[in-house]
Amino acid sequence: MWSDPGEVVAVDARREEFTRSGYLVLPEMVPRALIDRLVPEVDRWVDDGLRARSIACCTDTVQVSAPPVMELELPAHGALLTHPPLMDVLAQLIGSSFVFHHLHSDRHDAGRGGKPWHHDREPNASADPSLTMVHALHYLGGLDETVDSLVVLPGSHHESASKDSRTHLGTSELPDEIIIDRLPPGSTVLINSGLFHARRPAPPVSDRFRYFVDASYCQTGTQWRPAKPYWRHMLSRARSLGLDGGRWPELFAERHFTEYTQTA
Ligand SMILES: O=C(O)CCC(=O)C(=O)O
Question: Name one GO molecular function term (predicted).
Fold first, then answer.
């Protein structure tokens, strides 16, 4: 297949930058028409208690089966999960063989408080640090001074550190951090899941909602720890809904996961 040499150089540069810094900002990755379908789905997810039920299915000590509805069964969420431009960037960054890990959807109210410094990388069976897990953080309404910002610590994904090794720092300012607080609607920040990041609260002066959806994907080549006890059901529904569009044969394959174990 013919490739434009300029495009090859741009892709290489993007991959190198992502490997070095651990993040990549993709302004307006999500088109307006999809945002307009996603926002009412997020409202329903939160207001009808579906989000709370799905969390309870993961945290209750007596584990019930799957929740009545999962995020990926909401049609626009399913479309976002495999949005073709997003899939193409992921393939450029981590290669074309990757598996879906989880999808979360939420609506943040002003004054809810931030989320302390942490990373989200899950362990894999071979403890292979060279295999990459990526989180796509989607800001449906964008980011500005009225809502909480995202802060990242470039390069921190190269450390071997537990998820919560900086949690005691809260959302405080750290040397060399980058603040991401101005993004147009529909922007996505791709992070290496091992990158330390935090949600830093904005002053509670606005009542604007912050619409936030995140999806994560793992490079194949080992078995990853699943995020939810009903992970098999989740992958099976994604397959039966045909979310991969016939393009991504590994995306919902069970063989890339270990058994589920509950974390503390
Ligand atoms: O809300 C954000 O901008 C980041 C959220 C976050 O850190 C997470 O979901 O792990």
Answer: 2-oxoglutarate-dependent dioxygenase activity
